[in-house]
Structures are given as C-alpha cells and as structure tokens.
Amino acid sequence: MADHIRIRKADGVWTVRSGGAVLAESSNALEVTEGDYPMVIYFPRSDIAMAFLERTDKVTTCPWKGDANYYSIMNRSATIENGAWTYENPVDAVAQLKDHVAFYATDDVTVERI
Q1: How far is CA 47 from the centre of its chain?
Q2: Could you tell me the CATH number of the domain that includes residue 76?
Q3: How many structural domains comprise the chain?
C-alpha cells in the first residue's frame, strides 16, 4: 500500500442520509485517510440501501487504489449525480475496499457518526 494511505475500522456506527432517507448505517465501516485529504468513510455494500443508488458511466483511476466506479444518489427530492463511488476491483494493497462504497458529503448528503 502506498505509505500515504491508511485503512482501519471506523469507530462507532456511521450513517449516510439524503433527502430524508437513511441510505446506509453501519458499525463495520472503514475509515480511509490518504495523504492530506480529509478522512473518507467506506460503507460495506451489505449495509447500504442500494435501491437509492444508480450506476453511472463515470470511471476514474487512482494509481494507488485502482478504477473507481460511480453511482448517482436517487432520493425523493433530488438526484445527486456521481455522489458515491466504489473500487470494485481495488489493487491488492487496498483490497479491504472491495465491496465498500463511499459517499461525497454535501449539502444534500450527510455522512456522520451517530
């Protein structure tokens, strides 16, 4: 793993909310820190209401994590384009990220520890 990426189990229970709905709640989330970037919480796919997510065509590549695939968040009041991402086949050094999804925290999406 790149020296600047750290993955560990996130303490406590974490949630994602959007449009008045709880999209995810997990006590098995991962906390990922990468260099000087803010910490990101990755939720196990099994703890996400995937019906709120719609796969998009967007793909980006990170040299340390691999290809990221994106989802739009569909809630009752808005669509947040490419508001979540996943590494379906991460590089071996960050294999823990497989089957996890992260969300961009915005005015329309709240990611928080409860």
Answers
A1: 11
A2: 2.170.150.40
A3: 1
Among 19, 73, 68, which Cα is nearest to 40's? 68
Give the list of residues 6+ apart from residue 112 with CB closer than 8 angstroms, or none: 14, 15, 17
Q: How far apart are the first and last CA of the chain?
A: 30
Write the pLDDT tens digit of every residue in 1-28: 456 899 999 999 999 999 999 999 999 9
Model confidence over 32-74: pLDDT tens digits?
A: 999 888 999 999 999 999 999 999 999 999 999 999 999 999 9
Residue whose C-alpha is closest to residue 111's, from 60, 34, 42, 65: 42
The beta-strand segments (E) located in 1-114 are 5-9, 14-18, 21-26, 30-34, 40-44, 53-62, 66-74, 79-86, 100-103, 109-113
